[in-house]
Write a structure and sequence with these properties.
The protein is of the alpha+beta class. The protein has helices spanning 25-28, 52-62, 94-102, 104-134, 137-150, 154-161, 167-184, 192-202, 211-214, and strands at residues 6-12, 37-39, 42-45, 71-76, 81-84.
């Protein structure tokens, strides 16, 4: 689905990959902007208002050295759920994988280690998602604002935002969007500031949000800085 999901690109920083240069990945992509963060041995980045392909392309264009194959995740921010998009890519490289597969006594151990890495990587990506998009209301408002400003398809965010709302909230949003489009035309880049203000207003009305957002008290506590 990619956009309007929060698309996360994850690189292993241990460089156990076919294309590894031997230089830690963090050193090669350390200047790729404010959304690059490391949790555990995993590096994560996002390109707000875009999907995975744009984020990977940006990484490739700004580094001259080969990078490990990334693992991709998508965050359905409207329901605060994250899932892997495709396969987990952060385990052993192809040579090591094939060698272990040929040795039956190693195959079970390989599966156990790979599963351990997969879980570790998923937990790290979940930590990143919390820090960047779904960890609290302040973080989410920043994510939504930045994504709307960067996206060429702001209407898609409005459509998915509706799923954050309960029945009363959806009715209210539908009426407000109707009034908005009657005055300003369709939701587009030219009126994205007004759209952003409209949606952010609903994020402050806890009684209109679904339980995933409304019932978690920790979301409404002012956060400690996590990206500074």
């Amino acid at each position: 689905m990619c956009e309007p999901c929060h698309s996360i690109v994850q690189y292993p920083d241990h460089d156990d990959d076919d294309r590894s240069s031997g230089t830690p990945t963090e050193q090669r992509i350390s200047k790729l902007g404010q959304w690059l963060r490391k949790f555990g041995q995993w590096l994560h980045l996002s390109k707000m208002g875009n999907g995975h392909s744009e984020a990977v392309a940006k990484t490739s264009l700004q580094t001259e050295l080969f990078l490990p194959t990334p693992t991709l995740y998508e965050v359905n921010w409207w329901e605060r759920k994250m899932h892997i998009d495709g396969a987990f890519r952060g385990g052993f490289n192809r040579i090591g994988r094939n060698a272990m597969a040929r040795q039956s006594e190693w195959s079970d151990q390989y599966k156990e280690v790979r599963e351990m890495l997969r879980k570790e990587a998923f937990d790290a990506a979940q930590h990143y998602a919390s820090a960047v998009s779904i960890g609290n209301m302040t973080t989410f408002r920043r994510f939504l604002t930045t994504s709307l400003q960067k996206s060429d398809q702001p209407a898609r965010y409005v459509q998915q935002f509706e799923l954050m709302l309960n029945s009363a909230g959806r009715d209210s949003l539908a009426q407000r969007v109707k009034e908005f489009t009657m005055r300003c035309g369709r939701v587009s880049k030219t009126n994205v500031d007004r759209v952003t203000k409209l949606l952010l207003g609903f994020t402050r009305k806890r009684e209109l949000l679904i339980p995933e957002w409304a019932d978690d008290k920790s979301l409404w506590v002012p956060p400690k800085p996590c990206l500074d």
